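In this section we walk through a basic example: taking a raw amino acid sequence and producing a predicted 3D structure, encoded as discrete structure tokens. The instruction is simple. Fold the sequence below.
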Amino acid sequence: MSELWDCYDKAFQKLEGKILVRGQEATFSADEYHLVCDVAVRHADGTFLLMQRDYRKEGYPGKWEFTAGGSALQGESPEECAKRELLEETGLVADSMREVGRTTIDENHSHYVVYMAVVSCEKDAVVLQDGETIDYRWVEKSELLKMKEELATWRVFEMLPELEILPKLELFSTDKIEWLFFDVGSTLLNEEKAYLHRLQDVAEAVNEPFENIYEMAIAFYRENKKGDLEVMQAYGLPKLTWYKEDEVLYPETVLCLEKLSKRYKIGIIANQSLGTADRLEQHGILKYIDLVVASAEEGVSKPDRRIFEIALQRAGCRPESAVMIGDRIDNDIVPAKKMGMKTVWIKQGFGKYWQIRGEEEKADYEVHDLKEVLTLFE
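The resulting token sequence is shown next.
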């Protein structure tokens, strides 16, 4: 049976009821496109996965490629396609995955959606696909950049901040920075599952499809609002349960803290319920942290400047010798800048949807994960 694809127009809008058939591309009209997903893979240790194409392949036989990928099947979302292709072509399941770019190639009638997947598996867990791949290797960024022109897939390079050589600004020199303060949620701990769990509870409470509730929350986040809370308020619901057991470390959390704690003092400034230090201990990362200042214990929450003052006073640190690293522009970046601290916006979780609307909201640096934080300060 022929492979079926959803049909999209040039503006990337799905044409409901219109189906395309693989192998019949020559019959597609000028405004008919199908979806293709590419997935680049980075290990938590910072190396990147390359796969060698089978010599029997028609396109680029024997070439090394930087991405797994293929066409989305009928009914698949871009992320569903990316996860399937990653599993089929490498045998790997991502710890986290984010969209990094989109592009269109008219002559192929193709919309490309590119993802970066992060894994923390054993490196020999890669599975070769018969007739598709014959070898694999993990390479450092420096080697990958040297191979750019030799690879079968190259368009992803311009979409990945990980492949940029980040300049180490003087403001981050070791003789000026003494303390690195981290937020907790969506900075050191991945809260995605907890947010989805809460939104699923909303959907069940109001008898709406989860997809509708999720899209509604995303729309609020893009308006610089707390999407999950806004959705609950819109439906007249009380504040539903937050499942802390769903919180997990990001793949790079331990490596980042372990390395940075050897060069800097590490602190926490976070809006958290009682017991933050105990939870960090349970996650195995409290040993890297010198100071925990959390809202429940202090009786004051971010963005109130007093919680930052408490942290700096206990650390014995001047604001200009400290950096605040967090996912929230309103709670982390703006108040820390007003205090005179340096700032790093880590674009993880729903905080990544924040729309910058003024100079006071601009962080000194924007990064996408903790590996990039480590690159800045190493």
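Looking at the output, two observations stand out. Confidence is low (pLDDT under 50) at residues 165-171. The chain has eleven helices and 17 strands. In the next section we compare this with other chains.
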